[in-house]
Amino acid sequence: MSLNSEVSMPTKVIMPQMGESIAEGTVVKWLKKVGERVERDEPLLEISTDKVDAEIPSPASGVLTEILAAENQTVEVNAVIGWIDGEGAGESAGEGADKATAAPARPEPAPSTPAREPSGASSAIGRIIRSSPLVQKLAVEHDVDLRLVKGTGLGGRISKRDVLDYVAQRKAGGAPASAARGAAPPVPVSSAQPFTFTGPELVVPMTPIRRQIAEHMVASRRTSAHVSTVFEIEMTRIADVMARQGDEFERLHGLKLTYTPFFIRACTTAIRDFPILNSSVNGTEIVYKRDVNMGVAVAMDSGLIVPVIKNAGEKNFVELSLAVKDFAERARSKHLTVDEVHGGTFTITNPGVFGGLFGTPIINQPQVAILCVGAIEKRPVVRDDAIAIRQMIYLELSFDHRAIDGAVANQFMSRLKSVLEDWDEAVV
Known about the structure:
This protein is α+β, with helices and mostly antiparallel strands. The chain has three domains: about 10-100, CATH 2.40.50.100; about 120-205, Dihydrolipoamide Transferase; about 225-420, Chloramphenicol acetyltransferase-like domain (Chloramphenicol Acetyltransferase). The chain has nine helices and 21 strands. Strands 11, 14, 17, 18, 19, 20 and 21 form a seven-stranded mixed β-sheet that branches. The protein has a four-stranded antiparallel β-sheet with strand order 1-8-6-3. The longest helix is centred in the middle third of the chain and has 18 residues, at about 235-255.
């Protein structure tokens, strides 16, 4: 057949580079089956790396004719993981599937091995729950037992639409009969929830993101000389700002006033005075970074993701607040872009939202420091030789002793303390 302008060549689907230091990614879920049509930029699959879980858009319109990387398979970046045939774009899904019978089908775990289904869970009633982390999070938010939801995807996989349809049916009073017979024990959809044991032990493989986090953290401990310092800081002044201006801030900007932007602003201010905190180590050289690209850790059911607010030192308070809210929402819905999860120069992590007083986090390579924000709580302190009740917090800095001496780290924390305790910046 001669070539002409009307013939569309097949398009490769490749494993994208999800960060400058990422060499591989794991296919979590294909959102299309072999033989199904997909439009350009329509979500095609979900992948996971140690930096981000993300939905990957289709590079072209056409029919997905071949899947080369099965779900839960880890492959190198830029590897071909599938093919889209533009010539078959006009065919139905069924016709496309007939043409692609030689393509490898997506494997589904056998019922006898539920532990090999990281993105779902085995229920006490014997049915394997197949769903993505996004669907599991949605189920938790709407208090939905996934065993009661009929999956319409391949192999009975439950989709986001299945959960939303179930919620709508329940609100209308038409929940399935299985729900009316009595609530079953909850399906374990995250490590924070109980599992159903059938013996003395339950062996569950790590999820792809958990494996990659583990590798990244062990590598960081091998690389950096970790040292920690802890400061106690009074937050009464900032708490007063939030109480007095919180309603006005929300009215003007459409979002709640939170503590996180205060810590980001204090860090960028202190880094200007101690730029070594915004550097990296390259062999026997220290590389100073001009822009402060602030990573803010976001906790999810599947692990920890660190979106990066680029050039945070040049943003005003409102811009920082908007960025924090936007990144947190898109991190949990897997809509972060490649550029938004790499290039960080300093990181803030906040176990305080769960009640932790302080921690000693591992440095996010190739950075040289990470700030841990503890819980803010009222404590008795001595002020002017008298006992007073104040809003207090512990801030901990983990730093790389290869680049930063203890004196400099404590001077940085002292500067951070003064910015927070003597806060004088307008927030509205």
